[in-house]
Amino acid sequence: MCMNDKRVSCSEKGRITAVLQRARSMVLLSLMILLAACSGIHVSSNAQNMPVPHTTASSDTGDTISFAHIDETPSAGAVTVDVTLLDFKVFSSVTTFQVGTPYYFVVTNQGPSVHEFAIFPDKADGSPLPMDVQYVNRLLEIEQVAPGSTIKLNYIFSKVGRDEIACQMRGHYQAGMHLSIAVLK
Questions:
Q1: How many angstroms separate the Cα of 182 from the Cα of each of 15, 149, 154, 163?
Q2: Which of 43, 96, 160, 180 sits in a 20 to 30 Å window from 61, CA-based?
Q3: Based on the number of CB atoms within 10 Å of its own CB, is 74 exposed (0-12), middle (13-18) or buried (19 or more)?
Q4: Which spans in the chain are helix H?
Q5: What is the pLDDT of residues 130-151, one digit of tens each?
Q6: CA distance 181 to 120
């Protein structure tokens, strides 16, 4: 019931209430869209023909986390590279690569933590670049590789150099989760 207030009529109060409810709904909708946009996984590369990730949800902690699910078939003539991600180590069946050769990476996260699979450039002497420089110049990055999962993807190196396979999840790189590799002609 609307009380008679000399400053605001009953119909004006109803309109103000409707406008406030509409504004509140728009704010909630905007927050939901922003949350949905921010919850996806990230796949990036400076190379062509990169995989398109599919996401799956996990609610071990009650939160929804999107994990990479990439299951490409090997390219013709590809060399298979088995990569194992552990807390906090990286192992690879191949550490010397050739420019222009197709590689089929089979990456398995055997650790209990979520990891990423990334290939970053190093300095010419093989020593690591600062992490922010590595990240900006990354060759390949697949975020959110779930514990116990395997991703499979094709990749062709296009540049000679010293690189490393690494995980830059918070603290993982600093704990030793990187492996030097060489790319030759």
A1: 68, 26, 18, 6
A2: 43
A3: middle
A4: 10-38, 131-136
A5: 888 888 888 999 988 999 999 9
A6: 10
Question: Within a 10 A sphere around the Cβ of 113, how many other Cβ atoms?
Answer: 16
Superfamily covering domain 43-184: Cupredoxins -  blue copper proteins (2.60.40.420)
Say if CB 90 and CB 175 are below 8 A apart: no
Hey, how many other C-beta atoms are within 10 angstroms of the C-beta on 140?
A: 21
With tokens 């060489």, the residue in question is: 182
Alpha-carbon span 177 to 114, nearest angstrom: 12
pTM here? 0.66
Residue pair 105/50 in contact (Cβ under 8 Å)? The answer is no
| CA–CA separation, 138 and 57 (whole Å) | 26
Domain locations in the chain as residue ranges: 1-38, 43-184
